[in-house]
Fold this sequence. Notes:
By secondary structure, the chain is α/β, with parallel strands linked by helices. It has helices at 13-24, 39-48, 69-78, and strands spanning 4-9, 31-36, 55-60.
Amino acid sequence: xxxxxxxxxxxxxxxxRVVTRAIDKLGxxxxxxxxxxxxxxxxxxxxxxxxxxxxxxxxxxxNLPGTSGxxxxxxxxxx
Length: 79
């Protein structure tokens, strides 16, 4: 079965743990969680990875310090 990737963009370590535990409880070994604490790191991940190789869902805190989550979404939508 194909790998499914959830890109979690969350600056709070506690919130990231809650989300990760909830997804882990699903027991689906095909789900990989990739956590980024900043929009800049998430953008770098998307620029450097093979966009066609997998299925990805983005879970994002929109109120991040620095570059906002909305800016990230606009960038992803335009690319």
